[in-house]
Design goal:
- The chain is 31% helix and 31% strand.
- The protein is of the alpha/beta class.
- Strands 3-2-1-4-5-7-6 form a seven-stranded mixed beta sheet.
- Helix 1 packs across helix 4 and helix 3 runs parallel beside helix 4.
- The relative contact order is 0.14.
Length: 197
Amino acid sequence: MDAASWDERYGTDGLLWTAQPNRFFVAEVVDLPPGRALDMACGEGRNAVWLATKGWQVTAVDHSEVGLAKGRDLALEAGVEVDWRLGDATTYDPAPGFDLVAVLYLHLPRDQMRTALEKAMRGLEPGGLMVVVGHHLDNIVRGVGGPQVPEVLYRPQDIEQMLGGLDIVKAETVERPVDRAGVTGIAIDTLVTAVRP
């Protein structure tokens, strides 16, 4: 989806997603000492705001101005500062110096996803952690929600191959409950963490 489509999707009252941070992301970073973090394709900013409440200096990038506006509102409600940047994940060039880079639920065709991850990795400091979470390819047939287009979904090994130059720490298929119209189903996700040596 392009920026205009996301602007339209985020243009509803309230948040399209929850204000709570992603559970898998939280589990990976909650015990890290705060530093500088980059949230690429931040959407409505829930993970960026959560990081800021934990003392991180956060730069959050998204190509949807409407999504960023909702993120600014979340940050204001939480009483934190986030550096919001309008930019496309496939073309945005982060300055180096980030201790943490998050790429959460960014779903693009394979070549564009590789480009986005390469761009995001450029911002990562030696010793810095990269966290990638997204809908698993198996989610189409066994899970609930998420894109229904196989070309934009990925398995852990797909992301591993795109993170050349980083040391893979974790590459897993993970599951989470999803409530849809009062019925709980399971969503299947990919979780990959990696460190720049």
